């Protein structure tokens, strides 16, 4: 069925909030929001989730897609150890939501949803083989091969941030940890300073680009994608780390591979909702 003919819901279970949107065609037409309280019981947090869905549910909704920051079994619909809701150790989320709303429910982790959202609605549309990198608290990655999402076992493919690097792992250097640990400021605060041409902030993003370049070279060796789409809050600062990232790629062994390779930045509004909705399409 053509995606423009469908009305679906996308649910983003984020670090501080649950946000649900009704999507028709390529537009988010209505949203609802609930705060995530880490001290909530499983029952209370599930009730909160169902409430946000109910607020935008209409009779023409054909399916619900849910993006979860956790280990996900998309077949059974079980989610394990949700990072921001400690009470969610093992939750049959698909079954619970389907029972409540009587429409098909699709689950995946948040990084994979980001990749799929870019494929249906964003910068990944023209590419058969593409990687989506989410630059935020961590380093999330979704993999599109031959126009299809590659999940791996329990949606675990793409955990590039966990690769050993220097005295830790890659996401300690290619996520927000890097700015907080090295510069004692948030990426957001440094971004504002970089706009004002603060030399320390510009230096921070220059160094960040070098570390991200290591991650991107690993991706290029592993997957040889046509494009990498950058998303997440830190991607807004791409103009400040583009030069050092490009320089890091100068040492990539197969330069011919880079002739048509592109790095894009996501411009989707409500990207997490669209990504979760894309699971239904």
Automatic annotation (TrEMBL):
It holds the Pfam family ROK. CDD domains: ASKHA_ATPase_ROK. Signal peptide: none annotated. This is ROK family protein. InterPro entries: ATPase_NBD, ROK. Belongs to the ROK (NagC/XylR) family. The lineage of its organism: Bacteria, Pseudomonadati, Bacteroidota, Flavobacteriia, Flavobacteriales. It comes from the Bacteria.
């Amino acid at each position: 069925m053509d995606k423009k003919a469908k009305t679906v819901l996308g649910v983003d279970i984020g670090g501080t909030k649950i946000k649900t949107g009704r999507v028709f065609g390529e537009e988010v037409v209505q949203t609802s929001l609930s705060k995530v309280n880490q001290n909530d019981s499983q029952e209370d947090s599930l009730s909160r989730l169902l409430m946000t869905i109910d607020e935008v549910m209409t009779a023409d909704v054909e399916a619900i897609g849910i993006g979860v920051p956790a280990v996900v079994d998309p077949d059974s619909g079980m989610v394990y150890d949700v990072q921001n809701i400690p009470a969610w150790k093992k939750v049959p989320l698909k079954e619970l939501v389907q029972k409540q709303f009587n429409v098909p429910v699709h689950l995946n982790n948040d990084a994979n949803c980001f990749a799929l959202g870019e494929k249906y609605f964003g910068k990944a549309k023209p590419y058969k083989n593409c990687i989506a990198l989410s630059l935020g608290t961590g380093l999330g990655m979704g993999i599109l091969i031959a126009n299809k999402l590659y999940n791996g076992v329990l949606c675990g493919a793409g955990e590039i941030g966990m690769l050993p690097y220097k005295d830790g792992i890659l996401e300690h250097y290619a996520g927000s940890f890097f700015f907080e640990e090295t510069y004692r400021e948030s990426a957001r605060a440094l971004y504002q300073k970089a706009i004002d041409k603060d030399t320390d902030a510009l230096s921070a993003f220059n160094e960040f680009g070098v570390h991200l370049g290591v991650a991107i070279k690993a991706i290029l060796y592993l997957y040889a994608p046509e494009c990498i789409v950058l998303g997440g809050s830190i991607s807004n600062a791409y103009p400040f780390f583009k030069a050092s990232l490009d320089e890091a790629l100068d040492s990539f062994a197969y330069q011919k591979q880079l002739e048509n390779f592109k790095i894009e930045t996501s411009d989707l509004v409500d990207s997490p909702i669209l990504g979760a909705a894309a699971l239904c399409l």
